[in-house]
Amino acid sequence: MSDPSDSFSEAVSLNKKLAARLLVRKEQLVDDIASARARGAGVETLTSELASTEQEFAGALAEVAQLRRLAAKGPSAAAIRAAVESDPLTPSLEDAALERAREGIAETEIEASLTPDSPRASSAPAKPSPAKADEQARQEFERLRGNGSKGPGRTM
User: Which of 42, 75, 98, 125 is least crowded, fewest Cβ atoms below 10 Å from its Cβ?
Assistant: First the structure.
């Protein structure tokens, strides 16, 4: 990280990740407090942890805002601004295109399986009726047993 813009980029990225983790933790604590109150349990510890988490979250957001102000003033403002504006949680254009392609393939496969004149649907063998399947299984058993085809009515 010899370049100042690299330092800014990493600082912004780390602060955004920290803010995201703190936001998730804050929401979890709010849910925990609500469930504890519903059970009639004490919420003092959870409330103090929530206050601490909210302060850390506000601090992370303030630091991101300060980095944005510095990015607007510095010599390599364009590079820093680009780093600040990029969101690590937003998928890249390539990832979004790949996801759309996957969805399209899945939809096409579903349509092909539902269309009766599709090659997949016509190439699949029809399932035999239960009685016919039993007869085929019985014949296969007799063949493997070495008795040949002695008919379905024979028992041991």
Answer: 125
